[in-house]
Specification:
The complex is a heterodimer of chains A (about 300) and B (about 290).
Chain A (H helix, E strand, L loop, with lengths): L1 H9 L6 H30 L1 E2 L6 E2 L3 H8 L1 H32 L4 H12 L6 H11 L7 H8 L14 H10 L4 H12 L3 H9 L4 H12 L1 H17 L2 H6 L11 H10 L4 H26 L6
Antiparallel strand pairs in A: 1-2
Helix pairs in contact in A: 2-15, 3-15, 4-8, 4-9, 4-12, 5-9, 12-15, 14-15
Chain B lengths: L10 H33 L21 H9 L3 H32 L5 H12 L3 H15 L6 H5 L6 H11 L4 H9 L4 H12 L1 H17 L2 H6 L8 H11 L4 H21 L1 H12 L3
Classes of the chains: A mainly alpha (about 300), B mainly alpha (about 290).
Protein name (chain A): Sugar ABC transporter permease
Family (chain A): Belongs to the binding-protein-dependent transport system permease family.
Subcellular location (chain A): Cell membrane
């Protein structure tokens, strides 16, 4: 039976090459025009002083200028700081919440999943409007009122270079972690009960089960969330753009925002293209390193 | 036998444990829901300048004047919503249609260069959008010269690589034997796709439709870049402009934010199952 089934499974519908191309035609055209061409074009523009009518070739000038620009380095540092402060915390929060949801019944699980996911359906613009008022620097501002209750002085949250980065980080902490919570929970439910049974026979405690079973079993999930989280965080700029505009004194200028400003504020397309390619390279290298260091014994 | 102790024989202990857990989860839920709550509650306030007002977390009165203020701010306020609805609907329909077709081809039809093309798509998915942003802008504005049109808003999103990937992943799990049978019965490829693949993929396509619609409705930067008159803007761009023009009008700003988010809340509450499914469908290795 198995011998018969195998070749059947391997066989695909043959002689349909034409149909294949017809089915992917539209997707391929859209991809070629709106993704492939722009990527190639980005490389070309990055070596040019771009002008709508007649660009001039400038070699590596855009790259060299960027690396000499202290603002480019500052934006890179800001991005790294933001990533380090947000991504691990998000992982810990979602892991903790998923663990807590686990023993509840199905109905409660779904309810909590929905609650935690809810803020993710509101647009970034809408949420930025709300947070702008939460961070209101007046003593009547929501956050200032809360902290005043604990005897902490009024802060000029988004307006001072010492707190503006923290404000964006805080906003990220309290944003929706629904996606990672749901992914973690799905992975937790996928752990085979026999592991726990074996551990209980050995008299393992909750902490031990956590350390020796749950955390190793969830390693692929953690790696996935870590890599996607870092990639996302390196591209972040909507919140910075809408909340602080990168200020004050460029304290919240991230790479993504710097590229946006270079392109659409100063219209230095060549420089923006060069910096975006550097960003792509950095993201690629970081993802690779994460897989190398963390993914050694992770199977996919 | 699981991670948690069953507390067999100690029913009370189990109840207390779950009660404590629920309380912790509720507290955290309050923190995440708070901005949304604050937004909706405040939108019912009077449309007066903020000045020295203090915010209240409990609604003192319910007035729709701030909503009126938002709609009267610009004659195009309603148009922004319609623009968003139109763009998001077209993008959703085309994604479901073209991504499912491409997904079917990539998973079940054998043709030359299939693996190479699909690998190319996967690699492209890893390129950050900052890279394509500038050339795409130049393409739409300088080469095609279609800025400030619906085409500019819709064309780049007609079908995304992510959705093709999603469709391909799901359709790979449909047994090839079924398709073979249909072919022997005399179906051509399009009939196979339309009569067998589409009905079998209903759930994944529903998930795709909802996520695509939400993304398109919430997207801000692309419409912000390629529109320059108020009548072509989407609700997100309009909301941002409203915010910058009325920096002190607290309640109307919240009303605007609520209006922009409300359609998504309604969608979420009515199709919650698909939203939650959508999270794991693309993420967990299958």
């Amino acid at each position: 039976m198995t011998q018969l089934a195998k070749p059947l499974k391997k066989r695909r519908i043959k002689g349909d090459g034409g149909w294949g191309y017809a089915f992917i035609a539209v997707a391929l055209v859209v991809f070629a025009v709106f993704t492939a061409y722009p990527v190639v074009s980005a490389f070309i523009i990055s070596f040019q002083d771009y002008k709508p009518l007649g660009s001039t070739f400038v070699g590596f000038d855009n790259y060299i200028d960027s690396f000499k620009d202290s603002l480019f380095w500052k934006s890179l540092v800001n991005t790294v700081v933001y990533t380090i402060l947000t991504v691990p915390v998000a992982l810990i929060i979602s892991f903790g919440v998923a663990i807590l949801i686990l023993p509840l019944n199905k109905k409660l699980q779904t309810t909590f999943k929905a609650i935690y996911y809810l803020p993710a359906v509101a647009s970034g613009v809408a949420l930025s409007v709300v947070w702008l008022w939460i961070f209101d620097p007046m003593p009547t501002g929501i956050l200032n009122q809360v902290l005043g209750f604990f005897g902490i002085n009024n802060q000029n949250w988004l307006g001072s270079s010492s707190t503006s980065m923290f404000s964006l980080v805080l906003m990220s902490w309290l944003s929706s972690h629904g996606t990672s919570i749901i992914i973690y929970l799905a992975a937790l439910l996928g752990i085979d009960d026999s592991y726990y049974e074996a551990a209980e026979l050995d008299g393992a405690s909750f902490i031990k089960k956590m350390w020796y079973i749950v955390i190793p079993c969830l390693k692929p999930t953690t790696l996935f969330l870590l890599v996607t989280g870092v990639i996302g965080s390196f591209q972040v700029f909507q919140n910075a753009y809408l909340m602080t505009g990168g200020g004050p004194d460029n304290a919240t200028t991230m790479v993504g925002l710097l590229i946006f400003n270079n392109a659409f504020k100063y219209f230095e397309f060549g420089k923006a293209a060069a910096q975006s390619l550097v960003l792509a390279l950095i993201i690629g290298v970081i993802s690779l390193v994460q897989f190398k260091f963390w993914g050694k014994d992770v199977e996919y | 036998m699981s991670l948690y102790n069953d507390h067999t024989g100690h029913v009370a202990a189990k109840y207390i444990r779950n009660a404590v857990i629920i309380i912790i989860l509720l507290l955290f839920a309050l923190a995440t829901i708070f901005p949304i709550y604050f937004m909706i509650i405040s939108s019912f306030g009077d449309p007066v300048e903020a000045g020295a007002m203090s915010y209240s977390l409990i609604p003192t009165k319910i007035s729709l004047d701030s909503y009126k203020f938002f709609f009267e701010y610009s004659e195009y306020s309603l148009r922004w919503l319609l623009n968003s609805l139109f763009v998001a609907s077209v993008v959703t329909v085309s994604n479901v249609f073209f991504a499912s077709m491409a997904g079917y081809a990539f998973s079940k039809i054998r043709f030359k260069g299939r693996t190479a093309l699909f690998t190319l798509l996967l690699i492209a998915m890893m390129i950050p959008y900052q890279v394509t942003q500038v050339p795409l802008y130049i393409l739409i504005v300088n080469i095609f010269q279609i800025q400030n049109t619906y085409s500019a808003l819709i064309l780049p999103g007609l079908v995304t690589v992510y959705n093709i990937f999603l469709a391909k992943q799901f359709m790979s799990s449909i047994p090839t034997e079924v398709l073979e049978c249909a072919k022997i019965e005399g179906c051509n490829q399009f009939q196979v796709y339309f009569r067998i693949i589409l009905p079998l993929s209903k759930t994944v396509l529903a998930v795709m439709a909802i996520l695509t619609f939400m993304d398109s409705w919430n997207t801000f930067f692309w419409p912000f870049l390629v529109t320059n008159t108020m009548d072509m803007q989407t609700i997100q761009v309009g909301l941002k402009n409203f915010r910058f023009a009325n920096t002190t009008y607290f309640a109307p700003m919240m009303a605007g934010a609520t209006i922009s988010a409300l359609p998504m809340f309604i969608l979420f509450f009515s199709l919650q199952k698909y939203f939650l499914k959508g999270v794991t469908v693309g993420a967990v290795k299958g």
